[in-house]
Amino acid sequence: MIKKCNIFVIIYFFTKNLIMRKILVPFTILLLILSSCKTLKPDQKTYDGKHEWRAAWIATVNNIDWPSKPGLSSEQQQEELIEYLDLFKGMNFNAIVLQIRPTADAFYKSKREPWSIYLTGDQKVAPSPFYDPLEFAIKEAHKRGMELHAWLNPYRVSQDTTNLVDISPDHIYNKRPDIFVKHGKKLYFDPAYPETREFLVDVIEDLVVDYDLDGIHFDDYFYPNSDFEDSISFSLHNRGYAQEDKMAWRRENVDMVIEMLRDRIKSLKPYVKFGISPYAVWRNLREDPRGSDTKSYGYTNYDHLHADILLWMEKGWLDYVLPQLYFNIGYENADFNVLAKWWQDYNAGTPVYGGLGTYRLDKNAKIEAWQSADEIRQQANILRSMKAYQGVCYFSARNFKDNRLDINNTMYELYPNPALVPPLKGFPIATLASPNNVKIESSNEETRIVWQKPTTIEGDVHATKYHVIYRFSKNTKPNFKRGSAIIALTGEDSYLLETEANKNFDYYVSALDRLYNESKPIKATW
User: Fold this and answer.
1) Which of 21, 56, 185, 375 has most Cβ atoms within 10 angstroms of its Cβ?
2) How is residue 359 annotated by DSSP?
């Protein structure tokens, strides 16, 4: 244990009235000192206010978040997306996780898959007038100093098998129906086929090569459940597994594609992050001594989704893991605190973000904890105190658009200032060139901080991507470790001071590369 103490030193030296000279005085002093100590566990940390990943999922499947419905005009789609980006920027978020392949269809101009049915309402129809939604989203996110992670579902193809006639004739399902399986009302790729793995890896390669992405992101849906009908693929591609080991075979099918994806991404653009957001429970303690002390007996990553997330972390295949901690503090079957600690204890050095479920907030919720946004505030602060966690992601965006249970006010309280994305393990650290000619200019009733980017080589991962604006009281020594000193994080080449620039303040500007390595800040001159 580490003691962080505020010691009140009470010294009694040779006072005339000192009547307890042997034991009572020193013992009293010791008690006073110890009572002022705050105990910090080895796995705890103090939040520095400057580095934290703050993200939101924007879901497109079933038009959960965006667009609000299929078939909107391109201008309406763009306006809705910008509304979300501005909302999250205003709450000092620094990342968006945008679902761009919900059902083996695309929110981008794909070489291999049709347009998403949730975009235009018809997989054969492109946005009109034409634009590339992913390209647009990346540009607008980066302009606001925000990362954009492309969120894909690997195997899901259709939410309703009664509507398969609506799948585009060019879809791979209509070319290779043998590698797909119906499960309930849904249609999936069968993960066992080599063609499935190769196709998925090629889809990811197209994205990584063609777009200026910050990350590739998968959610928790791999196999839909343990009753998946894959007897044919098992007979063809069992790789020597016996029938009684079929569950291990399924897990290996997924293991192979995760490793392939990791290798392909890093061979193309090593700086693109590869992360997965699994269900909160890997396994229960009842099934495995390494499992969490939970009672999620009917649904786990390992036994039902056949996703051995623990193995992937141990192998170092992931740049981050984002468990969906969608349970309240004190919930008997899956306590938030129990799960948060499990991912801290078993991440094998993989950076962890926490997924928090704002969608559960409801004034009429059966569980009282979800009747107030304070549950989310408590959860975010708990994760801030845990060493392995580097930030959070909220599901989902519409909850903030609707300001469910005044959740936005909770965000303003949690995030009063912008923050930088924390550096992730394994990514290059660099000393950047600082911006040049940093100055404050007033014209046309506007006051702006302007600067010039240093010259960099095209394609350099350490080229300037964003800038940070600091503000300090005039003639005070600047402390650039203080998150409260940051007033802006921007992807643009100047910054508009919202109110008349106050000459009682000093302003500084630093440069960031796409990995959030920071240059020395430069003081702006008037």
Assistant:
1) 56
2) G
pLDDT at 223 exceeding the cut of 80: yes
DSSP 229-280: --HHHHHHH-TT--GGGHHHHHHHHHHHHHHHHHHHHHHH-TTSEEEE--BS
Tens-digit pLDDT profile for residues 424-470? 999 999 999 999 999 999 887 889 999 999 888 878 999 999 999 99
Give the separation between CA 448 and CA 500, rounded to whole angstroms. Answer: 10
Separation of alpha carbons 39 and 34, rounded Å = 10
| Cα–Cα–Cα angle for 422, 513, 420, rounded to 5 degrees | 30
Residues 6+ apart with CB under 8 A from 459: none
Contact yes or no for 344/292 (Cβ under 8 A) = no
E strand intervals along 366-478:
389-394, 436-443, 446-452, 466-473
pLDDT of residue 501: 60
The encoded tokens of residue 186 equal 């849904």
The CA-CA-CA angle for residues 204, 466, 422, to 5°, reads 70
What type of residue is 140?
Answer: E
Dmax (CA) of the chain: 99
The secondary structure of 481-521, three-state, reads CCHHHEEEEECCCEEECCCCCCCCEEEEEEEECCCCCECCC
Tell me how far apart the terminal alpha carbons of the chain are, to the nearest angstrom.
50
SS3 149: strand
Going by their DSSP bridges, the two strands 436-443 and 446-452 should be labelled as antiparallel
pLDDT tens for each residue of 375-406 = 999 999 999 999 999 999 999 999 999 999 99
Which residues lie across from 496 on neighbouring strands? 448
- Note the pLDDT tens digit of each residue in 401-426: 999 999 999 999 999 999 999 999 99
pTM: 0.91
Cα 480 to the chain's mean position, in Å? Answer: 25
Q: How many residues does the chain have?
A: 526
Dihedral (Cα; 79, 139, 270, 105), 10-degree rounding: 40
